[in-house]
Fold this protein.
Amino acid sequence: MSRIWKVLPAIFLLSICFVFLGNTAYASAEDKDSTIYNGIFIDEVNVSGMTKEEAAKAVEEFVETLRQKEVAITVGDQVAATTLGKLGYTYELNDVIEQAYAIGRSGNLIKRYKEIKDIEQGTKVFTINFKLDDSKLENFISKEVGAFNVAPENASVSRKNGKMIYTDHKVGSKVNVDTTAEHVKNMVLDGNWDRSNISLAANMDEVMPEYTREDVEKVDTILGSFTTEYASSAEGRAANLANGAKLINNTIVYPGEIFSGYEHLAPFTPENGYYSAGAYAQGKVIDSIGGGACQVTTTLYNAVLFAELEVVERAPHSMTISYADLARDAAIAGTYKDLKFMNSTDAPILIEAYTQGRKITFNIWGNETRDTKNRRVEYVTVVLDETPPPADVVTEDPTKPITYRKVTQSAHTGYKAELYKVVYENGVEVSRTLVNRSSYMPAPRYVTIGTKVVEEGPEDDSSKTEGKNDSNKKPKNQADNQEDEQEEPENLANPDEQMQADVFWDSIWDDDGYEDE
């Protein structure tokens, strides 16, 4: 019994203490019913003494200052910069404010009392869930930082002074979007970020070119070659052939790439090195810039055939031409007639072109893998049909005397022909493959004749004309006053005249423009 009496006072005092503390905590909670207790932070924001609405606004303003922070990504001495806001920097509070407000207000009396005492001794910090927009971040890195990518350069080859010149390749660099984005997120979303502007180097990857010096050094053999002549061409046309060769010379075509004659030769302007050459338009002789380009593409076409590359596009002339066999020509006219071929080999090819002694030559250099000792290729033209020219078209000129007769356009025979590739091995034909079918239109001869009748003068009577003006004297023999320009060639001797004929007839047959001869 003595022990019980000794313990009872202690129990009594403890009960009084609990009641007192509980009342104190309750009274304190009542006093601060609408505000957050002191010593409470949300991230770096001190929300002590704030209502929940005030705390939410304070956090929002804080995050907005973070959204203005600059993010700079460097590539060497180049910088791409933006802000966190533009990268979709946002936050989620979830129930953080409610948790902050609940400090000292939830649980039993002892728990409440302990929470209040704890924040009096220190601080309570609640964290915010931050995030970045992955798509915006990756798009910025890809476009803005990617602008500093350095493209790799293939090794190249050219031919000068009869020698091959090989150039080294260059390694490029490209931003690694994924690893750079991950680096940014780790810095920004890491709790250790000091909340200052952000600067970091992009993660770059090396990019090797597709063709190295080792690849271009394989270009050491002529795969195909062809030469045509233009001995009788006028100076302007000859200059255009030389210019066309210069524009194509030393062109590299990598495996799988397609060469276009038009893309290399156009525009046909004086600024691009072309001169005037004769041409017919609507039946009249005019000056045309670039006459002769078709002989450039025709010569190249034949070199391509012997190199056995894949011809993608080729068109014959409307009428026959003098410098290549039937079905061995390749016309160029605007964008609707072009010569295109693909490098169908496994190594780069080099197109060498030059003019010398009124001849134009194309050599196609590459890596020879064919059996050149026991295998031989030739191209054979087969004429399927021949159409004679239509009847002459005669134009009367009343300003010319009746003895005047001039051929302004020679006749052309029409043809249908096929070109075959014939392969021989050890002197024996092993294959015959159709290369193309070509049609050439017949054309009439155009002749202009005079219809003007020259009347004879009055009878000469010296007794009646004595002392009068000499204008009454008997005129000279009529034949002396007439133009003797009779001209009727079966074929035009000058290739320029042939070219003019082609241009004239294509101005009739084709709506898209002129076709060069």
Observations:
- The radius of gyration is 47 Å.
- The first strand starts at residue 40 and ends at 42.
